[in-house]
Amino acid sequence: MSLVEAPVAATVAEPAESIEKPRTHAGTRVLSVLALVLTGAAFLYPLIWLISSSLKDRAHVFDNALIPDPVAFGNYVEVWQAVPLLLWIVNSLLVGVAAAATATISSAVVAYGFARFRFRGRNVMFGLVLATMMLPGAVTMVPVYLEWHAVGLATTQIPLWAQNLFGSAFYVFLLRQFFLGLPGEVFDAAKVDGAGHLRTFARIALPLTVPAMIVVFVFELKAAWTDLIKPLIYLRDTDFYTLPRGLKTILDRFGEGGESQWELVLAASTIATAPMILLFLFAQRYFVRGLTTQ
Amino acid sequence: MARQRGDTRAAWMFLSPWIAGFLVFTAGPMIFSLFLSLTRYDMLKPATFVGLDNYQELVTDPKVGIALYNTLFFTVLHVPLLIVLALALASLLRRAGRASGFFRTVLYLPVMTPPVALAAMFLLLLNGQTGAINELLGWFGFTGPNWTTDPAWIKPGLVLMSLWGVGSTAVIYLAALSRVPQELYEAARLDGASSWKQFWHITLPGISGTIYFTVIVNTIASLQTFTEAYAMFFGNSEVADNQGDSALFYVIYLFQQAFSSLRMGYASALAWALFVVIAVITAVQVRASRRLVYYESEPR
Description:
The structure holds 2 protein chains of 2 kinds.
Chain A: H1 8-13, H2 26-53, H3 74-82, H4 85-116, H5 122-134, H6 141-150, H7 169-180, H8 184-192, H9 197-208, H10 210-226, H11 229-234, H12 243-254, H13 262-292
Chain B: H1 7-36, E1 39-40, E2 48-49, H2 53-60, H3 62-95, H4 100-112, H5 115-125, H6 132-139, H7 151-162, H8 167-178, H9 182-190, H10 195-223, H11 227-233, H12 250-260, H13 264-292
Helix pairs in contact in B: 2-13, 3-4, 3-7, 3-8, 3-10, 3-12, 4-8, 5-11, 8-10, 10-13, 12-13
């Protein structure tokens, strides 16, 4: 079937849009936006409710009103004094940055190995990398804990990030795609200049891959900041707690079955959530890029 | 990129971190765990070999049956609903024109919320008496259930809550939709195909590879669901795990056996059983995909 035979009227009636954009009638667009406004409200409501309820006093915390009246900023002061929130925030930052930095650098090194060199067994090895992406983490939970226990580090923060020193499958895959996309000429030039492999990697490949490395960094920062299971397994001393682990303690103590001071739980939840919201607003395009690379 | 002498050595140098990590944190632990599953080990006394005792216990342990049932129940509801909702939202975003970016942000914000904060929020939002969700249902004349205390409604409540994180899958689908060649739609329109027919014959085949990928990944993740349910209903020294059994997911039980009861051998057997269950389900999905996934004739 040939598109040349298309009736002229049909092509004239449609507005000229870029090729990737779907052609949508104005009516469909209005309906779509309307449906999105409704679902968008449903998705945004819990977050607005969270902030609002964290500013309510105990008598009003269950009222589901969107505007707190009276506004109780005291909740934040109270929870700040009741638990070592600042310490937990600092711990979360340290663990998060360590996890993100190590994952970024090690995954870049490994990805470069897969992207730039041909060697026997490369496809098998890369298949193995992809296979570990599918491997259920629950299977290695116990033995890896026992390994850290054997070297005397099981109750430190090190197990929360140190595994990232060895590259992570998803990030290796992602960065390999970026390295493969680099023009071969830059590497040929480096070779003519007599640069070694390490030098070519550090001076030429890495600087060109900074956007992709930011993708890895923000993804891993978010993963480490929000993780609960590893802190539950490893951290015993409350001084070492990360924010989610601390928040679990707050939830148990002030929330369900505890002293029933939900406004404090919600204030702490807001404190734990806000940095991630900000991270997304500032790094949105990197998150989207990470999800849509294939 | 021609093969050169020295390339192989350099390649292994770059790959060495991953190889070391694979041996120490994946392959080694898996073999270690297989060995542990044949022992009784509480970290205080040395491990004693007990043969297949742990696997025998696992088959008769009523809690394993409950945990497996709960996990499959959650997965069977969560994965299809997530996929359909994500696809619907992605299609809407695709048609929203300039507003699309704003709504994409709104849909993604829940994905950024730490699961423990999510647990705290939804304990209140899902609360049978005061929660906003039942208040909304009340506007339409429905009396909502006690999502957080009624054993019959705890899992549906957790599924509902899990759908709040649909944003990442929706963003993946949005990108997949934009890769479907637009000429196909033009051609179909000229042939007078309805929007439904276009969706069924062009859109679905066009993104079937992406759907396949997200089904597999989300099934594997869903069978290991842990954090939200644990934060909401477990690990609280102040109250007994009163809703315990209806929210007892497989990995929660594994976690309790390993780190509360210190039954490392039994927990390892539980882990291997889960591994087999996940492998079988994934294999079935891969087989089914051969009939259902459309691949373009030219490889990318």
